[in-house]
Amino acid sequence: LARLRHYTPLVRGVDIEPRSSTIQLDGWSKLLAHIGPRDFPNLASVHMYQETLLTVLFHTTPIHRLIGGSLRSLHVESTRDPWYTQGPDDRDRLEHLIVIYSHLDIRSPHLESLCVTVDKFHDDLAGPLMEAVCGLHNLLHCKLEGVYVTPRVLTHLASLPSLRTLAIETCDDDFADGLGDTLSAEDLPFPELQRLSLFFECMPLCTDLMRAIRSSKLNRVFVRTVEPVSEDELIAFGSALVDHPSAGTFSFLTVLLGLIFDNDAVIDPLPPSAFLPFASLHRLKMFIADGTSFAGLDDATLEAMARGWPRIEKAWMVPICRPVP
């Protein structure tokens, strides 16, 4: 331990991938029981990638002992194979993750980058994680996947003066009336946002949020909806982009139009008018529209897009014919 403490002040970043680690969970616990944040006064970043494959459960390293006031970047990715069956060790794994985020805003108040990827086994994480996010005021980058952002958290994130990157997921039940009074244009929501990723259930809420964002520097937008998108919904979303303060800076746009495919559902093709607004985003370098909705484009619309996108390098649109599930 004396030798370890001699070197820990020199450590500025820790990357942990338990799958390739030769130290077992018990070993990590014994080691970290004797050291803490004070032993790492210059530790600025902690990144951990943990994965569950089928019936093999890789342990979650108790990295909460490393989290202190010097931390600026925390990335924790904890995912599982979709065929994995929840086992008895999952509760221990969950408790380790909860400890990481509990009072994170107090332990690391100067955090600038928070990236969290978890699976649906971790609904219990929402409380401590969302509470911590609402106490962080210096975030530049925030990615929250696997937990639903509430109106309170969205309001806080919108108020951050220097937030540049945002990736969030929501539940429609939390926004039954849309954004409502969650964001006020007078408060200039998301003034410095440059990259945005939205994982929403339906398109109207995406459109409401785009209309609320006031940044003129938004460059990359990624939108994924669960439900298929109608003609009117896609027109409204495209129009919101055209009227946006960042309309002259949008360069990369990806829209995934629904993730659920029902073999028995009759889905009408999206007409050319649904895609026409995007032709007015003249600085686009990449445009991708894909998903379970599909397009019925005509020559005039394709020509309008070609003429409206002089900088385009990649364009991919949903098939003109009905996709095979």
What does this structure look like?
The protein is of the alpha/beta class. The chain contains ten helices and twelve strands. Strands 1, 2, 3, 4, 5, 6, 7, 8, 9, 10, 11 and 12 form a twelve-stranded mixed beta sheet that branches. Helix 7 (203-212) runs parallel beside helix 8.
Q: What is the SS-derived class?
A: alpha/beta
Low-confidence region ranges = 54-58, 321-325
What would the principal axes of the Cα set say about the shape? elongated
How far is the first residue's CA from the last residue's CA?
Answer: 58 Å
Strand count: 12
Average pLDDT over all residues = 84
Cα-atom radius of gyration: 22 Å
Please give the share of residues in helix: 25-40%
- Relative strand content: 15-25%
Main beta sheet strand tally, sense and closure: 12 strands, mixed
Provide the fold topology:
Layout: H1 2-7, E1 13-16, H2 25-32, E2 45-53, E3 56-57, E4 73-80, H3 90-101, H4 104-107, E5 113-117, H5 126-133, E6 141-145, H6 151-159, E7 165-169, E8 195-200, H7 203-212, E9 220-225, H8 231-242, E10 252-257, H9 272-275, E11 286-291, H10 299-308, E12 314-317
Parallel strand pairs: 1-2, 2-4, 4-5, 5-6, 6-7, 7-8, 8-9, 9-10, 10-11, 11-12
Antiparallel strand pairs: 2-3
